[in-house]
Amino acid sequence: METNGELARIKQDILKGVQRYFARHHEWSAAAPNRVPLSIPGYGEEEVCEALDALLSGDVTMGARVRRFEVSFADYIGVKHAIMVNSGSSANLIALSILVHPSLRGRIVRGDEILVPAIPWSTTVFPILQVGALPVFVDVRLDTYNVDMDQLRAAVTPRTRAIMVVHLLGNPVDMDAVHALAQERGLIVIEDACEAHGALVRGRKVGSFGDLATFSFFFSHHISTIEGGMVLTNNDEYADLARSLRAHGWIREMQTRDRIASQYGEFDSRFLFVSAGYNLRPTEIQGAFGIHQLARLEPFIELRRENARFWNQHLKKYADSLVTQEEAEGTRHVWFGYPVFVRPDAPFTRTSLAQYLAGCAIETRPIMAGNVAQQPVMQLYEYRQAGPLPNAQLIARNAFLFGNHQGVGPQQREYVARCVDDFMSRVPKRSVR
Prior knowledge:
Layout: H1 4-24, H2 45-57, H3 64-77, E1 81-85, H4 88-99, E2 113-117, H5 122-130, E3 134-138, H6 149-155, E4 160-166, H7 175-185, E5 188-192, E6 200-201, E7 204-205, E8 212-216, E9 229-233, H8 236-245, H9 257-263, H10 284-315, E10 322-323, E11 331-332, E12 338-342, H11 350-359, E13 364-365, E14 384-385, H12 390-398, E15 399-402, H13 410-426
Parallel strand pairs: 2-3, 2-4, 3-14, 4-5, 5-8
Antiparallel strand pairs: 1-9, 6-7, 6-11, 8-9, 10-12, 12-15, 13-15
Helix pairs in contact: 1-2, 2-10, 3-10, 4-5, 4-8, 10-13
């Protein structure tokens, strides 16, 4: 039988082997000079060793590592509570499920309206439907792809209960204006910050403005736990509901568990259920990744910002055909990807440019889910459209993004610029009248 000392030495040998592997393994540190995928792994030996340590210990389901990551992330964003779940989509589902919970005074009820931008990710919208509320699609601005505040204000009706803003592609929404509208009309604010880790408005991180906020740690995001998400709030009641809802509706992780358990002494408190919940728990492996990923976030953000500054400067010469985003004054844009809008009167199409870049091994994709109001799924559900959504439709048809991440450095960004130059050199010149 192996002694504890022998097992400890075997474990150390395993972890040292991982360290040696990553010391020689450089493929993940950068994309190839002439290939730019939408994302590449952003983790290293620290995350793998921490995850292996969890596996070898047997402590693999939600536990101390998850709690450590929750505390660190809440501190980073500047909020009181962070509750980790298994994905950003689940974070949105938990946030909406809190707001309709039967125990909540003044809860959202079936048919109440929630305003949402028409260019979001799909699971920004689907939880609104899943909890019985009515999504109201509001048009966005062409310069930011974020919700148009004038349209948002005009969309409010007596049935409106909440605003779900999306900091699309890491570009912060004007939260001062959103907050003013919410205060004036008595609305709840949910921030979908799944693509906006570290984005700032007046020095304050997005995710700290709303009544609730959500983040995603999917593989392609600024930092990753492979899959994973977080619900954030300063509201104690919301936080405890989130802890219960993510794990079967039981009280185990609730801060009020002792008080609740004392009221129901006939039940084993480990199996005391106070809500109809889900099973959306993260694992200790995800927590292990998050602990070390958070330390990488600020350098990752700065590299994305350097890339965006370079491309913005380089592509200015094509301003008659291409529109790029600029960082708004008083904000920090964290560039989930690099979006490009092809003007409707350009002498080429979005598709032709995207296909040319694909031929150069530069991967592209549409802007998130496009105009969700036009997706076929919405034919199955009731929703309201606040006007014709012309900007959302233009973005859906004319914009795309390519990868901007920790694997894109000077060589890769210059390669992208050269490929765009090559494409533009082949475009027929506009006729001069």
